[in-house]
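Hi everyone, sorry if this is the wrong subforum. Our group has a chain we'd like a structural model of before ordering constructs, and none of us has done structure prediction before. Sequence below.
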Amino acid sequence: MFNFGSEGEGKLKFDMDWKTWIAVGLSIVGLFIWQHYYMEEYRKFEAARRQHVLSQQIKQDEQVGEKVFPTPRVEAESPAKLESKLHFEPELLPQTETLTVKDAQYVFNNDTGGIEEVVLPLHLAENGEAVHLNRNRSMPIGAIGTRPGEALGGFEMEVLADQKVVTFTRTDPDGLRITKKFSVPDEKAKGERYVVRLDIQFTNQSSLPIQRLGYYVNAGSAAPIHSTDLPLYTRFDWYREGRMRSIDVNWFSPGQIPILGIQTRPAREIYTETTQNISWVAVTSQYFCTILTSLDKSGVSVWARRFDTKRSSDHPVYGIQGGLGVSGFELQPGQSTSIQFMIYAGPKELAALQALKGEQDAVMNFGWFGWVSEFLLWAMNRLHRVLGNYAGAIILLTILIKLALWPIQNHSTQSMRKMSLLAPKMQELRDKYKDNPQKMNEELMKLYKEYGINPFSGCLPLFIQIPIFFGFYSMLGVAIELRNASFLWIADLSQPDTVAHILGIPINLLPLIMTATMLWQIGITPKTGDPVQQRIFYFMPVLFLIFCYNYASALSLYWTTQNLFSIFQLYLTRNQPLPTLEKKSVVAKRALAEAKKSTKKSKSKTPRQL
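Answer:
Right subforum, don't worry. Here is the predicted structure as tokens:
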């Protein structure tokens, strides 16, 4: 451990047990070996699974064709008639139409009657092109079907470009006319950025009653935009009565015990839930999302599936698609019914999502410390308005937080310096009761109480920093503002700052600098002599390196800044005189004597002096 000299000079002596250093070193090496082995085995497993799924899909496509467009059932019809309707699909020439507003372009498809893709010209993808949402998917946003993952085809399209309206119509053989109207709000409309309105109307044009058992309205798909986007952010979310449920693409993977390769459950093909009053569903990637909101909360079920984006030949990169189920109906001749939706397809901008109401901002998924993340995001954007640079905003925000915590950090350091003076007495107790740990702990607690020292005071600043760290962790991982924001050698603060590759392993410089500053800080921090606290301190750099290594470089920038500030603060504290170590009873007696002395002086004063 590290200790101050008994002479009180404030210098550190290094007397850490060599066995502890060996254990720490082996743990770190073993951790990286395990991670490398696990990733290799996982890639082999996924490659084999992908080949199996692909072969099964080819066989299925040969049997039933690439797309199925089922016709909704009518209660009174015979099985033969229903079978003839199953393959009903009017022959229409493929047609697309694009409506353009300031922040987005919407490409509509006449076949399945929906938004084929959304282009966001203000945001760049990995290859320098504009970001495309729902790209290369056969399931347009707003397409409807009678089963999860299926869509009705044969819609005719009518475009009113000047009004920013696209209408799709289809009439079933039994006389049910389906009309879908997409309205792109005026770009000047307040709180309507990246928003499209969808109205679906069902009209019975026949002379007989028509019944439908329900439809699924598709929310499209989401997939990683950048190769380093984390899979945990490719999710399907749905919201009901104040609570959001969520799964990511890993939910569909087979259960497996790491390293041993023992499968605990098979892969899952589809996710479904059935309940009432579902408000919205969403497909999300790390920085973008598509949200389908039922304006009358008429959703009764949800579904989601995973798909391979075919972006990499080495290992699969998965996307996710899903939708919202709505209740069925029965229409008399000439009767109509309609349902209304709002579609948000754009970046995860907190302000834009909050403007939509309905708790759509829950897709930010900030977690337990959401209020901390929201405050940090607000503060970062405020500072950016002043500085014009997001890296500068993060650095300044970190310094302001450290200044606010300065008194707590200073008190903790002084308490730890007192404990360093108590180290010889603590060692005597350990030697005396080395064969009786329970008695040793009791005597140590008595010693702490006798001198009025809190043995956990050194951990207090760290515990306070944990909510802030995880608040930053959650916020910086989805802050769209950081995409393509540069700093020094870092090209994009939302991505790891990879400077090279060695044997296929990325070399991310800033997390390594961050780890070095943590070790520096540990080296100059007064040690309490408590073995438990020392173990925590020794393993913290390893844990933070794992957390930050392949994460947004903005997180490493924040933690490196706070480390350097803490080091500066520690050096200032070390230059102060060493505190005196006195028993609590002595301090109390002295305080009592001073109080009596002060009272005696006040009584001896003349009325004129008073």
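For your construct planning: The CA atoms of residues 511 and 545 lie 6 Å apart. The radius of gyration is 32 Å.
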